[in-house]
Amino acid sequence: MPNLSLLQKTQIVTLLEEGWSIRALAQRFEVNKSTILRAKRKWQQERVVQRKNGSGRKRVRTPEDDENLIQFLQERVVQRKNGSGRKRVRTPEDDENLIQFLRNNAFESVVTAINRTNFPGHVRTARNRVRQDSDLRNRVAAKKPFLTADNKNQRIDDTEEDTNKEQLYDNQENVDNDPIVNKEAAINNACGWKSARHQTDNDVNATGKEAE
């Protein structure tokens, strides 16, 4: 149960004198009925609601006890001996061989370098050594887009269409650059111009005769 504050105890005494029951006060302040009863008895016997100094549970330990406990725990701390850890399984030469292999084979992975140089360590250890002991940086290969059957067919259709357009363009360019074709076109244009001029002259002569 939560402890009642001085204000709550004062309110309880006031409400008791106004006629509130112990059960109603216990429900209102959400405490046990015995808590309300103790506050009531204290008020009736001592006419005070405040707790006396030193009336609580006596302290069972002293500051000296706390200090002795701390000192005992500090002395019992087990310190690790030098060299008692796991033995190092690789040498500086192993690290150098690994890094040198990657320098000479830029497109090989760390896993391949470990297998080729017999590096006695984990992949993560090898990567840490490369990152910390050299200027090499990890590069991730670009991934090609995944093509479905529809994508492939569409690309084939686009390629065939572009090829047909290029062939038509090349054929037209060859025709334009052919001297025989150009000569025939020039003759046809000239003949057509002469025919049109001759027709115009005939029309003029016919108009003159009609006028006479």
UniProtKB/TrEMBL annotation:
Residues 152-168 have a biased composition (Basic and acidic residues). One of its GO terms (cellular component) is nucleus. It comes from Popillia japonica (Japanese beetle). Pfam families: HTH_23 (PF13384). Residues 145-172 are annotated as: Disordered. Its main location: nucleus. It is found in: Nucleus. InterPro entries: Homeodomain-like_sf, WH-like_DNA-bd_sf. This is Transposase.
